[in-house]
Structure formats: C-alpha cells, structure tokens
C-alpha cells in the first residue's frame, strides 16, 4: 500500500501549516548513471520512483552508491546519463538551490555565530519572507522538534542531539520538496540515536514531506522506512517494504544484509527437490524468489535463526519440514532469548537457531536435528 494512503487512514494529527507547504513531491530516477572515471560506475543504471510523502531509505554497504544517488537528487553531482524528475518536471540540469530541498547531514553544519532562532530563520530570510511570518514559522518548527525556549541559545550551548534537532528544523522550515538525510544519526551514541530515530519518524508523519534517508544500518532502515532500496555495487539489488525485504529476499546479498541467515549453498540450478549433502529437501513454490527461479541461476537456501527448531533425543520433526543433522557448538545467552550456534552437516557450514522455551534441554556438544517449516525457507539467487 502506498505510504500516503496509509497515512490518511490513521487519523494522524494535522501538521502545522508552515511545514506542509509541499504535501510531498514524487522523485523519479530513470536509468541514472554516474561515472567518476573509475573502472565501474558509482551509480549504475538506477531507476527508482519515490512516492510523494514516502519515507524511502537507500541502504547498503559502504561504497555501494547511496550518497552519490542522494547527491544526484540534490544536484551536488551531475548525471553521466539518465534523468531525474520532481512531480514530472525534469530537474536534471537544475542547480541545487533551485531544487528546493532540505538537507540533513551527520555533521550538523549549523552557523556557530548564530542563535538557534537565527539558524532556523536563515532559509526563510534567503527566501525573503516578512519578519512576522519568519517569527511564526520559527516558533512552530521549534515546537515540532521540541526545542521551544532554546531560541536564544548558541549551537555550542547545545548537546549533539539538540544541535541535530536545530539542523532538522532548519531543513524543513521552508516546506521543501523533500528532505534528504545522509547518515544523520551516525555521530550520535546508541541511546541518542534511538531517541532521534523516533523523532525523525514522528516528524515525517506530522510533516508529510518526502524523506530520502541514507544509511548503512539495517536496523535503522527497518525501523524508519516505508520502503528500502538496497544498494550493491551501484545498483539496486532489491526494493520493497522492510517486511518484504526481510520475508522475501531475492538474493543471497539481500538475505545476508538484512538480518541473520543460515545459508546452504546449492550446487546448481533448482530442480524438483533440493539436494544438500546427504539430504533431499522439499520446495514450497512460494519460497522461490523470481531471480532464483531463472533457468541458469545459482541458488542458495536461506533460513532465519528464529525459524529453525531443534529436536533432541531422536525426536522426529513434523511433516512439512526440512531437517538436517547438526552439532551444538555453543549456546549464547542474549538476555531475552538463547541462540544455539551449530555446525551443520559434514562440512564447514555454520548455523544458528534461536531457542524457544520448549528447547530448554538443548546443551552444548549435543548432536541434534535442526528443522524448519518448508514455507519458512527462502530460495534466493547467489
Ligand atoms: P556509499 O554512500 O554507498 O558509501 P558512495 O556513493 O559514496 O557510496 O560511493 C560510491 C563509489 O563512488 C565508491 O566507489 C566511491 O569511492 C566512489 N566515489 C564517490 N564519490 C567520488 C568522487 N567524488 N570521486 C571519485 N569517486 C567517488
């Protein structure tokens, strides 16, 4: 379901008028490529539609092309080929200041000699708004980021989290077409990151503007996003809701990047059943990704640790499951649950199974049967 539809049915409070000048802009990338003159392009033929008001995260490892894509949207970099449109208008040749975008980076980039109110008022002054309107908008946006009463403070008198709120207020106060965020929480400690994550989530809901968020942190992406575009080597490996990426990974890269996985590499394309070492496993057709079902695709079977169960003392796994013999190497205590670290089959395959309450008798050194319901496995392209 598009994010905008979900938003209109949840009865969220109306956003302050000042920061909703734009209800959200659609951003369309068509065959976007950026070459810096290296052997491979930084961004390689990326096509992507970001819907109005959507929270879209560009996720991927370092060097996968996320920031370059964001900079192309912002106009800080020029396209080698392809096109970028905002609400159907081609902006490919527009300089950054004509794109009307808010930007938020890891380093807050506040003006140190200006107060909080002056920093936030800056983009409004640039746009030549009248003084009463500036005062009103600054007041409203400071309330939105919960900094009311700090108007006269200087950045050096604020904590890192507060400075980032000021930067956020400054980036949205003028009603931008979209807010672009490049690892904005990267410099903050873990607790503060969680707090600001929740704040960004709330502000996105209240403001309704399109957000494009760059991160390499899968948990952050899962928490915040309507959809995630997963980058790998300058290309989009997979795009979808956090649930879709986690529940239906197309490729081994996607399965490994989002969440923990037990991985069984298969020796050839998928047949009627799945041979792995001495085992022959069954296939649930709905667990085969489109890429894995391509004729010549190399395939891996992936199972999440929370979907693996352990049977001890020769207990039989239920029908409708696939099973393998494993040895329990270690049991990790992780607070709310325990994780069994397994070595599986004959070779070097390592695995993990999250232990439930009924698996309290599992101990280190045991030979066990690890099993999973067939519909909880994923067959992905390698
Ligand atoms: P990410 O944001 O995913 O870490 P980047 O978009 O920053 O990735 O980088 C993608 C690739 O482009 C990397 O190989 C990087 O070294 C290269 N790159 C990025 N910016 C430049 C630049 N200004 N000049 C040359 N190469 C660059």
How would you characterize this protein structure?
The chain has two domains: 17-245, 3-Layer(aba) Sandwich (Rossmann fold); 252-381, RNA polymerase II/Efflux pump adaptor protein, barrel-sandwich hybrid domain (OB fold (Dihydrolipoamide Acetyltransferase, E2P), Beta Barrel), CATH 2.40.50.100. The strands form five sheets. A six-stranded mixed beta sheet has the order 6-7-8-3-9-10, with helices on both faces. A five-stranded antiparallel beta sheet has the order 15-19-16-17-18, with no helix packed on it. The chain is of the alpha+beta class and 382 residues long. The protein has helices at residues 3-8, 66-74, 116-126, 131-144, 160-172, 190-207, 218-224, 242-247, 252-257, and strands at residues 27-34, 43-50, 55-59, 81-86, 89-90, 101-104, 178-182, 210-215, 227-232, 235-240, 262-265, 274-276, 279-281, 299-303, 309-311, 321-333, 338-344, 350-355, 367-373, 377-381. The protein contains nine helices and 20 strands. Bound molecules: adenosine-5'-diphosphate.
Tell me the CATH superfamily of the largest domain.
Answer: P-loop containing nucleotide triphosphate hydrolases
Reported by name, the CATH topology of the largest domain is: Rossmann fold
CATH architecture of the largest domain: 3-Layer(aba) Sandwich
Q: How are the strands ordered across the major sheet?
A: 6-7-8-3-9-10
Q: What is the helical fraction, as a range of percent? A: 10-25%
What is the straight-line distance between the termini?
A: 29 Å
Mean pLDDT: 90
Structural class: alpha+beta
Number of helices: 9
* Total beta strand runs: 20
């Amino acid at each position: 379901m598009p994010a905008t539809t979900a938003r209109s049915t949840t009865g969220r409070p109306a956003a302050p008028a000042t920061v909703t000048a734009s209800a959200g802009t659609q951003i369309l990338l068509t065959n976007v490529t950026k070459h810096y003159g290296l052997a491979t392009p930084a961004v390689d033929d990326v096509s992507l539609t970001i819907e109005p008001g959507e929270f879209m995260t560009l996720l991927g490892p370092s060097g996968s092309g996320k920031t370059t894509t964001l900079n192309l949207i912002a106009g800080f970099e020029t396209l080698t080929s392809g096109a970028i449109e905002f609400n159907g208008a081609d902006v490919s040749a527009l300089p950054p200041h004509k794109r009307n975008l808010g930007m938020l980076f890891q380093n807050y980039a506040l003006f140190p000699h200006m107060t909080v109110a002056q920093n936030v008022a800056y983009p409004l002054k640039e746009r030549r708004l009248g003084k009463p309107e500036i005062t009103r908008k600054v007041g409203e946006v400071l309330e939105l980021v919960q900094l009311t009463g700090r108007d006269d403070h200087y950045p050096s008198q604020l904590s890192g989290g507060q400075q980032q709120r000021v930067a956020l207020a400054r980036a949205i106060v003028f009603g931008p077409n979209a807010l672009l965020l490049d690892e904005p929480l990267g410099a903050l400690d873990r607790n503060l990151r969680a707090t600001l994550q929740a704040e960004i989530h709330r502000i996105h809901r209240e403001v309704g503007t399109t957000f494009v968020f760059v991160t390499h942190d899968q948990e952050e992406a899962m928490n915040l996003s309507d959809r995630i575009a997963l980058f790998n080597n300058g290309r989009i490996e997979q795009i979808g809701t956090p649930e879709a990426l986690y529940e239906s990974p197309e490729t081994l890269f996607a399965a490994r990047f989002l969440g923990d996985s037990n991985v069984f590499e298969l020796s050839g394309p998928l047949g009627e059943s799945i041979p792995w070492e001495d085992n022959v496993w069954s296939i649930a057709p709905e667990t085969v990704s489109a890429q894995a079902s391509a004729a010549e695709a190399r395939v891996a079977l992936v199972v999440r640790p929370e979907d693996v169960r352990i049977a001890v003392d020769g207990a039989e796994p239920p029908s409708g499951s696939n099973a393998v013999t494993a040895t329990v190497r270690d049991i990790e205590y992780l607070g709310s649950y325990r994780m069994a670290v397994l070595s599986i089959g004959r070779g070097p395959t390592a695995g993990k199974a999250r232990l439930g309450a009924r698996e309290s008798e599992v101990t280190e050194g045991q030979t066990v049967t690890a099993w999973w319901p067939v519909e909880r496995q994923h067959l992905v392209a390698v």
